[in-house]
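Curious: can you check?
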Amino acid sequence: MRYPRDYDTVPRLWFWLFHLLWLFPWSVYFPAVARLGFKPSGRAGKTRLLALCWAGFILVFFTFSTTQEYYSMPCYPALALLLGSAMAAGGNWIRYGTRLLCAIFAAAAVTLLALYFLVWNLPAPGDISAALSSHPGAYKLSLGHMEDLTIASFAYLRPPLLLAALAFVVGAAGSFRAVGQKAFLTTALMAVLFFQAARVAMAAFDPYLSSRPLAEALLRAPTGKLIVDHHYYTFSSVFFYTNRTALLLNGRFNNLVYGSYAPGAPNVFIDDAQWKTLWLEPGRCYLVITEKAAERLKSLVDPGLLIVVAQSGGKLLLTNHPVAH
């Protein structure tokens, strides 16, 4: 009900089902949790009952409140205790879960190797943002950006693709025959290797996720007034790396609305007309903006005054006066 609506919520079904992803690979053992004893007759039963109430309260509460995925994170330790208890107890459901893991790991390894060979000879010019698509409607989901991936984008991810495929091969091989603790240790090793692949992939996404190259170019450039398009989220790293304040162009948006009209609030919000006035003055100005949003500026000022100082990850650093190379 609040204004502005600066938050998103996900469907309740996805809110619940996504926990299978957040706790993967261990979530395959959830069916075994149902066979545990929850009677408070001993220390183990009391601990399991506490964990069940702990996780259940959080999940039920947010099911009837705003269902944002990260709201349920405080229940993960309780779910981990229940899964660990089930895994320690063993049984048929644990063996079935391990066989299911083996099949998932094998399918994932084949898929990643197929992707690797599909992009073997594909060129990878510039950075990965050039090969990504855009689906803003999906971004309310934490994994919504997966829809932005294209076959061409995997050409920028060849090393992490191979490392992730290796991780899944290790997991499949280890869980094919092993049971009990050996299977669990192999799965943990797979997770460690997969996280390393994710870390390497994050480096490839750095130009898209961060504005650090623009901030570094700004620090090298002559001094001038800094303007950031829209709200500060998209370019928050510019503020971090440069330690500068900036004007926000059409930035009275989302939770910035709350304090922007308060008495004594800094006068940092400008509209297109004010930006145009500043841009045409003799003083130097800089504007950080996305490439797509920059197109509308051409209807406000002469395109010759939109001088590109640096570009990275689909974002631009523009100035209104020429800068030495």
